[in-house]
Write a structure and sequence with these properties.
The protein has 330 residues and is α/β, with parallel strands linked by helices. It contains twelve helices and nine strands. The strands form three sheets. It has a five-stranded parallel sheet with strand order 4-3-5-8-9, sandwiched between helices. Helix 1 packs across helix 5 and helix 6 packs across helix 8. It is elongated.
Length: 330
């Protein structure tokens, strides 16, 4: 009787989980296995790959070497020759994998580390795959708060401390985050309520947080009008009058773009027919309002974070049930 084949250890991971952890696409892992013989030690029935801790250590070493500029073939040769129980590379501690180019993330989800590694390598296909995966599995709110935003913040900190370096990492990551958020389709039957208007202040180019909010609102079937970055003041006021929104969310990333006079102007806009005039709730979002909105205009409220901001908006929309008078106060 032939001995039973050895079972993979309980810690062995599937290809998708390993890809998210390392910040590469599953296609890349399969390509490395085919081209460079960097593959899993075992397979389950049905040819499912299972990667052991030793397999993953070799992959981590290959990722580090390629991130530092080594050709993939040479990185694979070194990784294959590494002892299974040896550390992947001497030097930086395991908390900041990837060598001196790694982003300092702290205690975050594995998907966040994988996305950061892919972004630093400028591995666009892996970034795209990882974003699609986390948005599908976690939803836009959790994906934004626990994976995307921490990675973006880490890139920003790295760029601030490294002079002109890493700007390319920030631009690549921002582009693919925006594209992934835009691919999220809103619910097919929106709530019958006035829309929520989202805009950045004039001169404000950082629109990703508003794009995440638009995706989350659409997923909840809440009607939204997204105007994006740097909307001129006159255009913003005209959009409020034309759409009669339940709320206006105005984003400012910095104190230089937080315009208190504009916020006061928007808060004072009334719309609708004579005798049934209404106004919109004004919600100020972004760190720029910290100083500019020390004395916010009447009916204005600060938002802090995507999840809590959604709760505020949902409560405002609930106040305007179908049939309610258009002038309902915020």
């Amino acid at each position: 009787m032939e001995p039973e084949p050895p079972q993979p250890p309980s810690a062995a991971l599937a290809t998708g989980a390993v890809a998210r952890r390392l910040g590469v696409s599953p296609t890349t892992l399969r390509s490395w296995e085919r081209r460079y013989a960097i593959g899993p030690s075992s397979r389950e029935a049905g040819r499912h790959r299972r990667w052991t801790p030793a397999d993953i250590a070799r992959l981590e070493l290959m990722c580090r070497l390629t991130a530092q500029g080594a050709p993939p073939s040479e990185a694979a040769r070194v990784a294959r020759g590494a002892a299974p129980d040896a550390p992947a590379v001497a030097g930086p501690p395991a908390t900041t994998p990837g060598g001196p180019r790694a982003l300092r993330l702290g205690d975050v989800r594995p998907e966040c580390r994988g996305l950061a590694r892919a972004a630093v390598r400028l591995d666009a296909p892996a970034v795209e795959d990882l974003l699609e995966s986390v948005l599908a599995e976690l939803g836009p709110v959790t994906a934004w708060e626990e994976v995307i935003a921490p990675t973006l913040h880490a890139v920003g900190r790295k760029w601030a401390s490294a002079g002109e370096r890493y700007i390319e990492v920030e631009h690549l990551l921002s582009w693919y985050v925006s594209a992934a958020l835009h691919r999220i389709r809103p619910a097919p039957e929106p709530v019958p309520a006035p829309p929520v208007l989202l805009a950045c202040t004039p001169g404000e180019q950082h629109s990703l947080p508003m794009e995440a909010l638009a995706a989350a609102l659409g997923e909840r079937a809440l009607p939204v009008r997204m105007f994006g970055a740097a909307l001129p003041a006159d255009a913003l006021c005209e959009a409020v009058r034309r759409t009669g929104p339940r709320a206006v969310v105005l984003w400012a990333q910095s104190r230089t773009t937080a315009d208190a006079a504009l916020a006061k102007s928007v808060a004072g806009i009334e719309w609708g027919p004579r005798g049934a005039r209404g106004h919109s709730a004004l919600l100020l979002a972004g760190p720029g309002w910290g100083a500019a909105a020390a004395a916010p205009p009447a009916r204005a409220e600060r938002l802090f974070g995507l999840r809590s901001g959604l709760a505020v908006i949902e409560s405002l929309v609930a106040l305007r049930a179908p049939g309610n008078a258009p002038g309902t106060a915020a």
